[in-house]
Specification:
single chain; 391 residues; mainly alpha; 17 helices; 1% strand
Length: 391
Amino acid sequence: MNSAKVRDFITKYTMIIVLVLVTLFFTWGTQGKILFPQNITNLISQNAYVFVLATGMLLCILTGGNIDLSVGSVVCFVGAVGGVLMENMGVPVFVAVILMLLLGALIGAWQAFWIAFFRIPPFITTLSGMLVFRGLSNVVLGGKTLPIKSETFTVLFGGGANCYVPDFLGGGEGLNRVAMAAGIIACLIYIFVTVRGHMNRKKKGYETGNVAAMYIKMIIICAVIMFLTVKLAQHKGIPTSLVWVLIVVLIYGYITSKTTIGRYFYAVGGNEKATKLSGINTDMVYFIAYTNMGFLSALAGMLTIARLTSAQPTYGQNYEMDAIGSCFIGGASAYGGIGTVPGVIVGALLMGIINQGMSIMGTDQNMQKVVKGLVLLAAVIFDVVSKKKSS
Protein backbone atom coordinates (compact mmCIF):
# COMPACT_ATOMS: atom_id res chain seq x y z
CA MET A 1 0.00 0.00 0.00
CA ASN A 2 1.58 3.28 -1.13
CA SER A 3 1.63 6.51 0.87
CA ALA A 4 -1.26 8.03 -1.11
CA LYS A 5 -3.52 5.08 -0.27
CA VAL A 6 -2.47 5.25 3.36
CA ARG A 7 -3.37 8.96 3.48
CA ASP A 8 -6.72 8.26 1.82
CA PHE A 9 -7.43 5.47 4.30
CA ILE A 10 -6.56 7.64 7.31
CA THR A 11 -8.64 10.55 5.97
CA LYS A 12 -11.64 8.31 5.28
CA TYR A 13 -11.58 6.52 8.62
CA THR A 14 -10.11 9.22 10.87
CA MET A 15 -12.93 9.26 13.43
CA ILE A 16 -13.15 5.46 13.59
CA ILE A 17 -9.40 5.33 14.31
CA VAL A 18 -9.85 8.03 16.96
CA LEU A 19 -12.80 6.10 18.46
CA VAL A 20 -10.68 2.95 18.74
CA LEU A 21 -7.75 4.83 20.30
CA VAL A 22 -10.00 6.65 22.80
CA THR A 23 -11.68 3.36 23.76
CA LEU A 24 -8.28 1.72 24.30
CA PHE A 25 -7.15 4.69 26.40
CA PHE A 26 -10.17 4.55 28.69
CA THR A 27 -9.95 0.75 28.86
CA TRP A 28 -6.45 1.24 30.23
CA GLY A 29 -7.43 4.22 32.39
CA THR A 30 -10.38 2.44 34.01
CA GLN A 31 -8.62 -0.97 34.32
CA GLY A 32 -11.15 -2.37 31.86
CA LYS A 33 -14.23 -1.21 33.77
CA ILE A 34 -15.58 0.74 30.80
CA LEU A 35 -16.02 -2.58 28.93
CA PHE A 36 -18.01 -4.26 31.73
CA PRO A 37 -21.39 -5.51 30.37
CA GLN A 38 -23.38 -3.15 32.60
CA ASN A 39 -21.30 -0.14 31.49
CA ILE A 40 -21.83 -1.05 27.82
CA THR A 41 -25.58 -1.16 28.47
CA ASN A 42 -25.44 2.14 30.34
CA LEU A 43 -23.50 3.74 27.48
CA ILE A 44 -26.31 2.87 25.08
CA SER A 45 -29.20 3.76 27.40
CA GLN A 46 -27.74 7.05 28.63
CA ASN A 47 -26.88 8.24 25.12
CA ALA A 48 -29.98 7.02 23.25
CA TYR A 49 -31.29 10.59 23.04
CA VAL A 50 -27.97 11.73 21.52
CA PHE A 51 -28.15 9.15 18.72
CA VAL A 52 -31.73 10.17 17.89
CA LEU A 53 -31.19 13.95 18.06
CA ALA A 54 -27.88 13.81 16.18
CA THR A 55 -29.51 11.90 13.33
CA GLY A 56 -32.12 14.64 12.95
CA MET A 57 -29.55 17.40 13.42
CA LEU A 58 -27.54 15.96 10.52
CA LEU A 59 -30.34 16.81 8.08
CA CYS A 60 -30.35 20.42 9.32
CA ILE A 61 -26.56 20.68 9.03
CA LEU A 62 -26.59 19.17 5.53
CA THR A 63 -28.72 22.08 4.28
CA GLY A 64 -25.80 24.47 4.73
CA GLY A 65 -24.28 24.12 8.18
CA ASN A 66 -27.55 25.15 9.86
CA ILE A 67 -28.39 23.96 13.38
CA ASP A 68 -31.38 23.70 15.70
CA LEU A 69 -30.80 25.17 19.15
CA SER A 70 -34.29 24.36 20.42
CA VAL A 71 -34.09 20.56 20.55
CA GLY A 72 -33.27 20.35 24.28
CA SER A 73 -36.21 22.56 25.20
CA VAL A 74 -38.53 20.67 22.82
CA VAL A 75 -37.43 17.39 24.44
CA CYS A 76 -38.35 18.86 27.85
CA PHE A 77 -41.66 20.37 26.71
CA VAL A 78 -42.89 17.25 24.88
CA GLY A 79 -41.87 15.12 27.85
CA ALA A 80 -43.72 17.46 30.21
CA VAL A 81 -46.90 17.40 28.13
CA GLY A 82 -46.70 13.61 27.78
CA GLY A 83 -46.24 13.19 31.52
CA VAL A 84 -49.27 15.37 32.28
CA LEU A 85 -51.38 13.50 29.70
CA MET A 86 -50.53 10.07 31.12
CA GLU A 87 -50.30 10.77 34.84
CA ASN A 88 -52.70 13.68 35.49
CA MET A 89 -55.29 13.23 32.74
CA GLY A 90 -55.35 9.44 32.47
CA VAL A 91 -54.76 9.34 28.71
CA PRO A 92 -53.86 5.81 27.53
CA VAL A 93 -50.13 5.31 26.88
CA PHE A 94 -50.35 4.64 23.16
CA VAL A 95 -52.64 7.64 22.59
CA ALA A 96 -50.25 9.81 24.59
CA VAL A 97 -47.30 8.55 22.51
CA ILE A 98 -49.06 9.50 19.26
CA LEU A 99 -50.01 12.92 20.65
CA MET A 100 -46.41 13.53 21.77
CA LEU A 101 -45.04 12.68 18.32
CA LEU A 102 -47.64 14.94 16.69
CA LEU A 103 -46.78 17.76 19.10
CA GLY A 104 -43.09 17.43 18.26
CA ALA A 105 -43.81 17.47 14.53
CA LEU A 106 -46.06 20.54 14.92
CA ILE A 107 -43.36 22.39 16.85
CA GLY A 108 -40.85 21.46 14.17
CA ALA A 109 -43.26 22.61 11.45
CA TRP A 110 -43.84 25.93 13.26
CA GLN A 111 -40.13 26.69 13.28
CA ALA A 112 -39.64 25.26 9.80
CA PHE A 113 -42.32 27.59 8.44
CA TRP A 114 -40.37 30.72 9.41
CA ILE A 115 -37.04 29.26 8.35
CA ALA A 116 -38.16 27.86 5.00
CA PHE A 117 -40.71 30.36 3.72
CA PHE A 118 -39.68 33.62 5.43
CA ARG A 119 -35.96 32.83 5.53
CA ILE A 120 -35.60 33.84 9.16
CA PRO A 121 -32.08 32.57 10.07
CA PRO A 122 -32.30 29.13 11.73
CA PHE A 123 -30.05 30.31 14.55
CA ILE A 124 -32.51 33.08 15.52
CA THR A 125 -35.66 31.00 14.99
CA THR A 126 -34.47 28.05 17.04
CA LEU A 127 -32.91 30.28 19.72
CA SER A 128 -36.37 31.75 20.14
CA GLY A 129 -37.81 28.24 20.34
CA MET A 130 -35.24 27.27 22.95
CA LEU A 131 -36.48 30.06 25.23
CA VAL A 132 -40.19 29.63 24.46
CA PHE A 133 -40.41 25.87 25.02
CA ARG A 134 -38.18 25.92 28.10
CA GLY A 135 -40.55 28.47 29.61
CA LEU A 136 -43.63 26.47 28.57
CA SER A 137 -42.13 23.36 30.18
CA ASN A 138 -42.04 25.17 33.52
CA VAL A 139 -45.62 26.36 33.01
CA VAL A 140 -46.91 22.86 32.19
CA LEU A 141 -45.16 21.25 35.16
CA GLY A 142 -45.58 24.18 37.52
CA GLY A 143 -41.86 24.09 38.19
CA LYS A 144 -42.16 20.65 39.82
CA THR A 145 -41.05 17.11 39.06
CA LEU A 146 -43.79 14.78 37.79
CA PRO A 147 -43.14 11.04 38.38
CA ILE A 148 -43.92 8.73 35.44
CA LYS A 149 -45.64 5.70 36.95
CA SER A 150 -46.78 3.97 33.75
CA GLU A 151 -44.78 0.74 33.56
CA THR A 152 -45.88 0.15 29.97
CA PHE A 153 -44.41 3.47 28.86
CA THR A 154 -41.14 3.14 30.77
CA VAL A 155 -40.51 -0.42 29.57
CA LEU A 156 -41.40 0.49 25.97
CA PHE A 157 -39.00 3.44 25.86
CA GLY A 158 -36.14 2.18 27.96
CA GLY A 159 -36.79 3.06 31.60
CA GLY A 160 -37.04 1.07 34.81
CA ALA A 161 -35.61 -2.35 35.65
CA ASN A 162 -37.45 -4.31 32.95
CA CYS A 163 -36.57 -2.16 29.94
CA TYR A 164 -35.07 -5.04 27.95
CA VAL A 165 -36.33 -7.15 25.08
CA PRO A 166 -37.72 -10.35 26.70
CA ASP A 167 -35.59 -13.45 26.20
CA PHE A 168 -38.34 -15.57 24.64
CA LEU A 169 -35.69 -18.10 23.54
CA GLY A 170 -35.19 -19.12 27.17
CA GLY A 171 -31.64 -18.04 27.98
CA GLY A 172 -32.21 -18.28 31.72
CA GLU A 173 -29.31 -17.17 33.89
CA GLY A 174 -26.69 -17.58 31.14
CA LEU A 175 -26.21 -15.55 27.98
CA ASN A 176 -29.35 -13.81 26.75
CA ARG A 177 -30.24 -15.89 23.67
CA VAL A 178 -32.33 -13.20 21.99
CA ALA A 179 -29.38 -10.81 22.12
CA MET A 180 -27.02 -13.45 20.70
CA ALA A 181 -29.46 -14.35 17.93
CA ALA A 182 -29.92 -10.67 17.05
CA GLY A 183 -26.14 -10.18 16.79
CA ILE A 184 -25.72 -13.21 14.53
CA ILE A 185 -28.62 -12.13 12.30
CA ALA A 186 -27.19 -8.59 12.08
CA CYS A 187 -23.83 -9.99 10.94
CA LEU A 188 -25.44 -12.24 8.34
CA ILE A 189 -27.53 -9.37 6.95
CA TYR A 190 -24.47 -7.10 6.80
CA ILE A 191 -22.42 -9.77 4.98
CA PHE A 192 -25.26 -10.46 2.53
CA VAL A 193 -25.80 -6.76 1.72
CA THR A 194 -22.06 -6.10 1.32
CA VAL A 195 -21.38 -9.12 -0.93
CA ARG A 196 -24.52 -8.51 -2.99
CA GLY A 197 -23.56 -4.86 -3.50
CA HIS A 198 -20.07 -5.89 -4.59
CA MET A 199 -21.46 -8.42 -7.08
CA ASN A 200 -23.95 -5.91 -8.51
CA ARG A 201 -21.21 -3.31 -9.03
CA LYS A 202 -19.01 -5.93 -10.70
CA LYS A 203 -21.87 -7.08 -12.96
CA LYS A 204 -22.53 -3.49 -14.09
CA GLY A 205 -18.86 -2.84 -14.75
CA TYR A 206 -18.39 -0.33 -11.92
CA GLU A 207 -15.19 -0.04 -9.94
CA THR A 208 -15.36 -2.52 -7.06
CA GLY A 209 -12.23 -1.60 -5.14
CA ASN A 210 -9.94 -4.00 -3.30
CA VAL A 211 -11.75 -7.27 -2.56
CA ALA A 212 -9.37 -8.18 0.28
CA ALA A 213 -10.00 -4.81 1.93
CA MET A 214 -13.75 -5.41 1.67
CA TYR A 215 -13.50 -8.77 3.43
CA ILE A 216 -11.15 -7.40 6.12
CA LYS A 217 -13.64 -4.59 6.78
CA MET A 218 -16.47 -7.15 6.93
CA ILE A 219 -14.60 -9.28 9.46
CA ILE A 220 -13.76 -6.30 11.68
CA ILE A 221 -17.34 -4.95 11.69
CA CYS A 222 -18.83 -8.39 12.41
CA ALA A 223 -16.29 -8.88 15.22
CA VAL A 224 -17.33 -5.55 16.78
CA ILE A 225 -21.03 -6.44 16.46
CA MET A 226 -20.51 -9.81 18.13
CA PHE A 227 -18.33 -8.30 20.88
CA LEU A 228 -21.07 -5.81 21.77
CA THR A 229 -23.71 -8.53 21.46
CA VAL A 230 -21.90 -10.79 23.93
CA LYS A 231 -21.53 -7.90 26.38
CA LEU A 232 -25.25 -7.12 26.17
CA ALA A 233 -26.13 -10.82 26.48
CA GLN A 234 -24.00 -11.09 29.63
CA HIS A 235 -26.04 -8.37 31.34
CA LYS A 236 -29.79 -8.43 30.67
CA GLY A 237 -29.99 -8.45 26.90
CA ILE A 238 -31.04 -5.76 24.42
CA PRO A 239 -32.28 -2.50 25.99
CA THR A 240 -35.53 -1.30 24.40
CA SER A 241 -33.89 2.11 23.92
CA LEU A 242 -31.37 0.43 21.58
CA VAL A 243 -34.25 -0.88 19.47
CA TRP A 244 -35.52 2.68 18.96
CA VAL A 245 -32.02 3.90 18.12
CA LEU A 246 -31.57 1.13 15.53
CA ILE A 247 -34.93 1.91 13.94
CA VAL A 248 -34.01 5.61 13.61
CA VAL A 249 -30.50 4.90 12.32
CA LEU A 250 -31.63 2.35 9.72
CA ILE A 251 -34.51 4.48 8.43
CA TYR A 252 -32.53 7.71 8.17
CA GLY A 253 -29.43 5.94 6.89
CA TYR A 254 -31.57 4.62 4.04
CA ILE A 255 -33.24 8.00 3.44
CA THR A 256 -29.96 9.92 3.21
CA SER A 257 -28.17 7.39 1.01
CA LYS A 258 -30.83 5.78 -1.16
CA THR A 259 -33.69 8.23 -1.73
CA THR A 260 -34.29 11.32 -3.84
CA ILE A 261 -35.15 13.55 -0.89
CA GLY A 262 -31.93 12.40 0.77
CA ARG A 263 -29.93 13.62 -2.22
CA TYR A 264 -31.78 16.93 -2.06
CA PHE A 265 -30.39 17.64 1.41
CA TYR A 266 -26.85 17.21 0.12
CA ALA A 267 -27.60 19.25 -3.00
CA VAL A 268 -28.97 22.21 -1.02
CA GLY A 269 -25.93 22.19 1.24
CA GLY A 270 -23.54 21.87 -1.68
CA ASN A 271 -24.96 24.72 -3.77
CA GLU A 272 -28.44 26.00 -2.99
CA LYS A 273 -28.69 28.35 -5.97
CA ALA A 274 -27.78 25.65 -8.48
CA THR A 275 -30.19 23.25 -6.76
CA LYS A 276 -33.03 25.76 -7.02
CA LEU A 277 -32.26 26.46 -10.68
CA SER A 278 -32.43 22.72 -11.39
CA GLY A 279 -36.10 22.75 -10.36
CA ILE A 280 -35.86 21.48 -6.78
CA ASN A 281 -38.05 23.20 -4.19
CA THR A 282 -35.33 24.19 -1.71
CA ASP A 283 -37.86 25.81 0.64
CA MET A 284 -39.55 22.43 1.09
CA VAL A 285 -36.19 20.78 1.80
CA TYR A 286 -35.64 23.19 4.69
CA PHE A 287 -39.22 22.64 5.86
CA ILE A 288 -38.81 18.85 5.91
CA ALA A 289 -35.46 19.06 7.74
CA TYR A 290 -36.76 21.17 10.63
CA THR A 291 -40.16 19.48 10.87
CA ASN A 292 -38.35 16.16 11.11
CA MET A 293 -36.10 17.60 13.81
CA GLY A 294 -39.16 18.37 15.92
CA PHE A 295 -40.50 14.85 15.37
CA LEU A 296 -37.24 13.22 16.49
CA SER A 297 -37.03 15.62 19.44
CA ALA A 298 -40.38 14.21 20.59
CA LEU A 299 -39.00 10.67 20.38
CA ALA A 300 -35.92 11.77 22.33
CA GLY A 301 -38.25 13.34 24.90
CA MET A 302 -40.02 10.02 25.40
CA LEU A 303 -36.70 8.18 25.77
CA THR A 304 -35.58 10.78 28.33
CA ILE A 305 -38.61 10.73 30.63
CA ALA A 306 -38.83 6.94 30.37
CA ARG A 307 -35.19 6.47 31.42
CA LEU A 308 -35.47 8.96 34.28
CA THR A 309 -39.05 7.84 35.13
CA SER A 310 -40.13 11.46 35.59
CA ALA A 311 -40.71 14.74 33.75
CA GLN A 312 -38.84 17.77 35.04
CA PRO A 313 -38.44 21.40 33.84
CA THR A 314 -34.64 21.06 33.74
CA TYR A 315 -34.50 18.04 31.42
CA GLY A 316 -32.91 18.50 28.00
CA GLN A 317 -30.34 21.11 28.99
CA ASN A 318 -27.34 21.05 26.62
CA TYR A 319 -28.91 18.26 24.54
CA GLU A 320 -28.56 20.49 21.48
CA MET A 321 -24.82 20.78 22.12
CA ASP A 322 -24.46 16.99 22.36
CA ALA A 323 -26.31 16.53 19.06
CA ILE A 324 -24.41 19.26 17.21
CA GLY A 325 -21.09 18.08 18.60
CA SER A 326 -21.78 14.47 17.55
CA CYS A 327 -22.50 15.60 13.99
CA PHE A 328 -19.35 17.66 13.57
CA ILE A 329 -17.15 15.10 15.32
CA GLY A 330 -18.69 12.42 13.11
CA GLY A 331 -17.59 14.15 9.91
CA ALA A 332 -20.46 16.49 9.04
CA SER A 333 -19.15 19.65 7.39
CA ALA A 334 -19.64 23.02 9.06
CA TYR A 335 -20.46 24.33 5.56
CA GLY A 336 -23.16 21.73 4.82
CA GLY A 337 -23.51 19.13 2.09
CA ILE A 338 -21.23 16.55 3.75
CA GLY A 339 -22.01 13.99 6.44
CA THR A 340 -23.49 10.52 6.94
CA VAL A 341 -25.68 8.84 9.53
CA PRO A 342 -23.01 6.19 10.36
CA GLY A 343 -20.49 9.00 10.84
CA VAL A 344 -22.84 10.79 13.22
CA ILE A 345 -23.28 7.58 15.25
CA VAL A 346 -19.49 7.25 15.49
CA GLY A 347 -19.35 10.85 16.73
CA ALA A 348 -22.07 10.21 19.31
CA LEU A 349 -20.32 7.04 20.49
CA LEU A 350 -17.05 8.95 20.85
CA MET A 351 -18.72 11.63 22.97
CA GLY A 352 -20.46 8.96 25.06
CA ILE A 353 -17.25 7.00 25.67
CA ILE A 354 -15.40 10.17 26.67
CA ASN A 355 -18.19 11.08 29.11
CA GLN A 356 -18.43 7.63 30.62
CA GLY A 357 -14.69 7.03 30.72
CA MET A 358 -14.00 10.28 32.54
CA SER A 359 -16.88 9.63 34.95
CA ILE A 360 -15.55 6.18 35.85
CA MET A 361 -12.06 7.68 36.31
CA GLY A 362 -13.56 10.30 38.65
CA THR A 363 -12.65 13.29 36.47
CA ASP A 364 -14.07 16.62 37.64
CA GLN A 365 -17.27 17.68 35.80
CA ASN A 366 -15.70 20.98 34.77
CA MET A 367 -12.71 19.23 33.21
CA GLN A 368 -15.10 16.93 31.34
CA LYS A 369 -16.63 20.01 29.71
CA VAL A 370 -13.15 21.28 28.81
CA VAL A 371 -12.26 17.99 27.12
CA LYS A 372 -15.55 17.82 25.19
CA GLY A 373 -15.09 21.42 24.01
CA LEU A 374 -11.56 20.74 22.78
CA VAL A 375 -12.65 17.57 20.98
CA LEU A 376 -15.41 19.50 19.18
CA LEU A 377 -13.01 22.30 18.21
CA ALA A 378 -10.47 19.77 16.91
CA ALA A 379 -13.15 18.10 14.76
CA VAL A 380 -14.24 21.39 13.16
CA ILE A 381 -10.62 22.49 12.61
CA PHE A 382 -9.95 19.16 10.87
CA ASP A 383 -12.99 19.72 8.62
CA VAL A 384 -11.98 23.26 7.68
CA VAL A 385 -8.32 22.37 7.04
CA SER A 386 -9.28 19.32 4.97
CA LYS A 387 -11.66 21.40 2.87
CA LYS A 388 -8.99 24.06 2.21
CA LYS A 389 -6.47 21.41 1.14
CA SER A 390 -8.93 19.74 -1.22
CA SER A 391 -9.79 23.06 -2.85
